[in-house]
Amino acid sequence: MIIFIQKMPRNSADYFRYFPVSPDCVRWGLGVTAAGCTRIAPHSIYPPPRHPTDHQFDWERGRVLEAVQIILITAGKGWFETKATGRRAVTAGTAFLLLPKVWHRYRPDPETGWEESWIEIQGPVVESLRRAHVLTATACIRRHALTAGLDAALEAVHARIRQTHPGFDAELAARAMSVLAAWRDAARARPKLDRMGRVIAEAEQYLADHLAMQVSVRDLAKQFGVAYSHFRRAFKAHTGFAPWQYMLHLRLLHARRQLASSDATLDELAGRLGFSSGFHLSTAFKQAFGVSPDRWRRQFAAALPDSG
């Protein structure tokens, strides 16, 4: 068996890896056979080269896989299509599911590119979830993946893979189960969007698009024509976060990604993400993740394989 590894510069978060299917996938119920996270720049080739031939595809022909993949778009926008869903627009915070033997295609908008974080899983657990209708071809898009914690579950997978453990890794399989759980949680029953639901959806997108700005929640509620107190309660009911907490959550996730993929200082990141100073960013980061940004960056770098 061949393990495909894309080697990236040591200060880059981008990577993808493919692993042989182990007999332990059956004994443990599931295993990770591939994963990656990649930034697709505007007007660049998609998918990137150097994927195995059975995973490459082009937009005109699409593709069919033999395994399950879950793909989260963390920035940018694009399209996703299967025969069951038709062509659907994909924006930041959306995840989609690829099922075995189901034709599909997807790509970023050439004008924006996108950032994707993904995992491929095989094993009896996957088939059990398909029989239980947890993984279905008709409900293969999740618009609220961040609220369900799918981003954190995938980051835990990537962190484990970057430690390059040989052979079957039971801990990695456990983290894959967390990804499946987050996918399930993102589908928890949501009522059909009424006017307030549509307002909250638009507000989520507005906050994601204006991370560097100091946004007044009162002004935002007024802009959408709803009472501030009603807007605040409805926003938390729909997303699990108060509006300011939601924006802080997004800013800190972006900070963590940029700490991993650049040499930017805390003050530079603070300016990009709407924090008043690097000290303010550092304090909020430590409260959220239990470790300072500098220490997190060192730990992340130490976990990366050598690029030589």
Textual characterization of the structure:
The chain is of the alpha+beta class. It has 2 domains: 4-185, Jelly Rolls, CATH 2.60.120.10; 195-303, Arc Repressor Mutant, subunit A, CATH 1.10.10.60. The chain contains 11 helices and 9 strands. Strands 1, 2, 3, 4, 5, 6, 7, 8 and 9 form a 9-stranded antiparallel beta sheet that branches. Helix 3 (150-161) packs antiparallel against helix 4 (170-185) and helix 9 (266-273) packs across helix 10 (278-289). The longest helix has 19 residues, at 243-261. It starts with a strand and ends in a 5-residue tail after the last helix.
What's the tally of helices? 11
Number of domains: 2
How is the biggest beta sheet arranged?
A: 9 strands, antiparallel
What helical percentage do the residues reach? 40-55%
Approximate shape: globular
Provide the low-confidence segments as ranges: 1-12
Give a quick rundown of the structure.
This protein has 308 residues and is α+β, with helices and mostly antiparallel strands. The chain is built from eleven helices and nine strands.
Keywords, separated by commas or semicolons:
alpha+beta, 11 helices, 19% strand
